[in-house]
Amino acid sequence: MRIKLLLIIVVSIAVVFCYTNIAKTQEVGLSVPFGENVLNVHSVCYSGKIKAVHLYDDTKSSEYADMLNLGINTFIISGSLNNNVDYSNNVDNLSSNLKRFAELAKQNNVIFFPVLKFRHFVSDSIVTKNNVVYSDGVNGDHVSLWDKTYWDHLTKTVKLLASLSLKYPDQYKVDGVFFDFELYDNKSGNYFDDTWGFEDEIFNKYLIEKKLNNIASVPKASNKKNQRYNWLKSKGYLPNYYKFLRLEIENLAEKMKKEVKKVNSAFLIGAYPSPTEERRYLASIYDGWSESNSPTIIWGTETYYKGGSSSIPAKLKNDKRPQGHYNVSSVYGNNGENIYAYYVGGLTNEGYKDVNNSAYNLYNVAKNSNGYWIFTASSYFNSTEKIRGNYDYSVPKIKCYDQETNYLFECRTFSNNSDFNNLRSYYFEQITTANSEINKLVSNKNYVTPLGIKTKPDEDINLKIKSFSIPDSVKRGENFQIECDFGTALPCIGADHAGERCTFVAFNGTKAVFDCKARVEGLQKNYCYFKSNNTMQDDPKCNNEWHQIDSIEVLPGLPCTPNWVCGEWKDCIGGYQHKNCFDSNDCGVQTDKPNIWQSCQETIPRSIIVYSPNSVGISWIKGSKQTIRWSTKNLPWESLIRIGFINSNTGIEYFLGEKDNDVEQFYFTVPPDLPIGKYKVKLETTYEGQTYSDISDNDFDIVGTTSSQNISQDTLASIYSLITKLIEQMSALLRK
Predict the structure, then answer these.
(1) 3-state secondary structure of 98
(2) pLDDT tens, 18-50?
(3) Could you say which of 3, 408, 414, 513 has the lowest number of CB atoms within 10 Å?
(4) Which residues partner with 165 through β-bridges?
């Protein structure tokens, strides 16, 4: 009986405490995710630089700390989130390992992006059985790119990520999601291409939309999948069908973005790799994820293996917007996509031949973009047995360091752990140096770094080339041949003239013969190289080895008059529009090239919408900390948003403050002197002489105060009633 009595007393105290605490701090809205001193990915991209590493989820706390000590401010973590695992029994429906890294991010005030793979096979899926159908009618095992069920599943997962740091602002921090769009083990290769998109659902939707479903010959039946591509092609519908597929996937991505932004407007949705032309539909996905004032993030791959900042898309430097992100439509919008994004250039540990070039390239990639990311820092913590020359995607490699020549080379094993630790220290030294230089650049935009490129001695450059053949000179416009003999007939051999790939012709024994064209006058560099491809990536000779051969003098050629052929002007964005022009005579000069940019008058619809509070049943206590969130369309970041409340009963307006439109949210304390009652949020801004405003659809309540002396009578009555019942139960037990 004493135990029961003790339990009842404890419960009574707990109930009183809970009710009192609720009365003090009740907040139906979400808490503030960022304070003034919390590292915000948007502010870093605006006024600083992303310094990121990729790690796997088995990373130890000590290894995480090593990266922090190098000056890393952003962590990309693979493996902590699986798109085919049911987390419904987990707290917050997320993996405990993911929350571990979210907690580390909060504790260390760094940026955190968990990786979510798009790759998903229906044969073992717990989500969907809607598989891809290729253009030849063959059923693939991968989920259809246009499967709404799968996109809804991903959206639900991303919304959970977006809400975590809002739900627990003092415990977790998640800044965005890093989608991985590499699709290994697929019939079409590692990325989407034009063979995707011939499933029953999407094909028949196109037929209905275009009013083609009643044509007698149309292969809409499931047993005629293998006829669809040829039917579309023969009828001239194929280009229009591909356009339809791009718009459909853009709409699915946009739907995800809108739902996620309702939860957390500052949350970033981004992906790897860069949406280049050969990676079909990626540009459309990025388009759906972005707006002019709400960017996505591209974890770039142009810089992955060579070139450093020189491999960043050339047009990027002219397309930076005041908010800190880029309008990359001219870079990736080959089919009219409008993409606004932060661009962070990626570098691999094995991609750069000289260890001292690592700091130089990290610095310059960050200087010319929003920052850098390294794939993969987990290599620094592999066992010595796992560091090897052959690239294995489960065992990423790094290169060994030769102190005598100051050069990196392929390594199979180390004689002891000391050798490996010495190697790791060289990489760490380079990252520390780069980050120190980047910090100086952030503090002073005119800073000039002392970092430069160092190379291995010239006599060693062509060690792997047995011989090569190239003319001493050619005339501009002429075709010529390069022969490269590496002593092997591997299909991954290539050649490059003046920055342009030459065309492979044939092997003459072990000599690879290439056709090249001289387009630019002057002394031009030439290269022979091994280039990784899907069929040879396990061969150590196919690991991106570039070798400079003799330069060639390109002399003035025969008179050539350019014939400029231009496309249509693209959409007017930011007061300018662009068109593409090319010279059909291929003269290699810019003479009389038409102007490809012109000013224009935008006719873009603009709006502002209250996202929260905007649902039924919300109550805010006077003196509590709250957040108002909104979404704008085509309004610049510097637009000043005026924020206030309207009393729904009296119509009196209360001004709360002003906030620029950078992250589309306003953190504030509910005024303690605000009258109790029902209210709505009013937002208003002016742009180019036009006023845009919105008022929340539903009322919310302003109640009580944060003082424990002002608990409502109803709450006190509830507490009194509960305590009375508990006392009656205690009395009954004592009588037994």
Answers:
(1) helix
(2) 444 433 333 333 333 334 456 788 888 888 999
(3) 3
(4) none
Does the residue 238 lie in any domain? no
Phi then psi for residue 96, to 5 deg, are: -65, -30
Any domain includes 220: no
Phi, psi of 92 (to 5 degrees): 65, 10
Amino acid at 394: S
20 & 96 share domain: no
Mind listing the pLDDT tens digit for each residue in 97-116? 899 999 999 999 999 999 99
| Residue in the structure block whose two tokens are 């208003």 | 684
What is the residue whose two structure tokens read 């796992």?
A: 386
Q: Are 293 and 637 in contact (CB under 8 A)?
A: yes
CATH value at residue 630: 2.60.40.10
Instruction: Report how far residue 487's alpha carbon sits from residue 541's, in angstroms, rounded to the nearest whole number.
Output: 11
**Cis (ω within 30 of 0) for the bond into 273?**
yes
Examine residue 266 and state whether it is found in any structural domain, yes or no.
Answer: yes
Q: What are phi and psi of 150, to 5 degrees?
A: -70, -40
Q: Which residue do the tokens 């009574």 mark?
A: 12
Whether residue 545 is found in the same domain as residue 483: yes
CB-count burial class (<10 Å; 0-12, 13-18, 19+) for 141: middle
Beta bridge partners of 664: none
DSSP 482-527: EEEE-SS--TTEEEEETTEEPEEEEEETTEEEEEEE--S-EEEEEE
Structure tokens at 403: 């102190």
One domain for residues 134 and 273: yes
Inside any domain, residue 544 = yes
Residues spanned by the domain of 619: 607-705
* Cα separation, 70 vs 435, whole angstroms: 8
Please tell me the distance from the alpha carbon of residue 389 to that of residue 382, in angstroms, as a whole number: 14
Residues 50 and 8 in one domain: no
Average of per-residue pLDDT values in the chain: 80
Tell me which residue of 262, 362, 298 sits closest to 665, measured CA to CA.
262
* Structural domain count, the chain: 4
